[in-house]
Prior knowledge:
Layout: H1 8-33, H2 44-97, H3 105-125, E1 127-128, E2 131-132, E3 135-136, E4 147-157, E5 160-169, E6 176-177, H4 192-213, H5 218-248, E7 264-269, E8 275-280, H6 296-348, H7 352-377, H8 379-385
Parallel strand pairs: 3-6
Antiparallel strand pairs: 1-2, 4-5, 7-8
Helix pairs in contact: 1-7, 2-3, 2-6, 4-5
Amino acid sequence: xxxxxxxxxxxxxxxxxxxxxxxxxxxxxxxxxxxxxxxxxxxxxxxxxxxxxxxxxxxxxxxxxxxxxxxxxxxxxxxxxxxxxxxxxxxxxxxxxxxxxxxxxxxxxxxxxxxxxxxxxxxxxxxxxxxxxxxxxxxxxxxxxxxxxxxxxxxxxxxxxxxxxxxxxxxxxxxxxxxxxxxxxxxxxxxxxxxxxxxxxxxxxxxxxxxxxxxxxxxxxxxxxxxxxxxxxxxxxxxxxxxxxxxxxxxxxxxxxxxxxxxxxxxxxxxxxxxxxxxxxxxxxxxxxxxxxxxxxxxxxxxxxxxxxxxxxxxxxxxxxxxxxxxxxxxxxxxxxxxxxxxxxxxxxxxxxxxxxxxxxxxxxxxxxxxxxxxxxxxxxxxxxxxxx
Length: 389
């Protein structure tokens, strides 16, 4: 039955054409955007996953930027410590060279003073954005924070976000600190045994020379032997006293401040081998007031520089480990970002080969749909022939 009011074939062709046109539009959008899931209506589940991954990737990128900035602070502090270590090595040589009798300590002090200026410049110059880890002010109210954190990771597990950091304690590496407190001087050994020994030694040497110049009478020999015995007894007493007194010697307690400006308890040995306790600091090295009769202070400075140099070396080694940790984490974050990008692409990226084939097929379907609709619409024209003639 043909109907003038209802063209069933045309309606069916029109519906098919609409569906084809919609599919063609979707396929064209996929080709244009490169995504098969561009909005939530394309696939709510995949769109949600992709959106979350993009957000995580953005956060990971921000963490990587923060890690790079924090890594620069670590690099600068490390280079500063390395430079300070080199300067301390020069100072160590100058101080050690001053521990001998008749050394030119005035000339050495001039060179040491110049190196002390270099130490200060190296510490204060190792700064980034006005912040220095090597020269600080930890006085109350200064806002000083010893524990510095460098954001290192961003993770999401079962919807819970976690942010971790690489921690660096500035108190372990600081070289100068305006907040200084004094330490306590240790206990020095007594030196009476050494004085007695040296006196007996001089007496013996004089007696020995006198005997050599004498006619070697019994009286001369007796004087010689008496002096020798006295010297040997004094030598034994001195050795015992030296061991006893040095056993009583103690280092003092260190003060507070930076490695280069805090007072440190050190030990120096005098000309008789007795230990003397001192409170000394690197930034106030002064050797011009030392007499040849007692070089214990110079030797104490040698001990001080060696001790601080080891601490600076340890601090640099620890920062080197942090550098390695930062670089490793940066590489991991870069890999993680690429992995996330791949994970985003799997559910939402369009397969261009497939879309190309589908687009051509839909274009053919569109043409056939238009042709079918045209044929269906001509059926009403056939009704006119029934009323002719």
